[in-house]
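Exam revision sheet. Question 4 asks you to relate a sequence to its structure. Input first:
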Amino acid sequence: MKLIENYLLEIQRPDVLYHARWELVNVIKPNVSDISTAGKIKTHGKNAIFASSRKLYAFGLERVNLLTPYKYTEQEVERWKKASWLSPQPPLLILYYWNHIPKKPIYLYKLDPKGFKPFKVISKGKTYYHWYIEKPVKPLSVKKIYPREIKNIGWKVATDRDWEIKKQKYRDRGAFKK
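Answer key, structure tokens:
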């Protein structure tokens, strides 16, 4: 079964991968993502470059007080005047902003998929594959994008009510740092 799954994955390997980040570089170097603690997948937390066959703009957007499970205490979060959080909405990943509008540009890199390893992401009952590599990569091309160009595709404005609901979900799940 594993052999068949590997074969199917190999023939479905994309022609190009995308990686978004907030800085312009000639060579993308591996680093541990600040959202790595949110995942329960073995690849998260690795010193790697993560990429997708879809344009996931949210990864490149500036993060203001990014609400990450088990990283902040409830008291710390209650003092925030503005915040953001990632929300999977298959097949996209959306970054929500509360009391903040992103203005800094992002850079969308096209990457050659050669050398990237797949990992499975299961979100809301659907399975997707993303990719990672643990060595530096030279991009095929780069495109500068401003947040206003991808509003409602890569990010959304959160209301006070949305923010209260998000904090309540963290309380209910015990996701605040103890």
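Marking note for examiners. The beta strands are 17-21, 49-51, 83-89, 92-98, 106-111, 117-123, 126-133, 141-145, 155-158.
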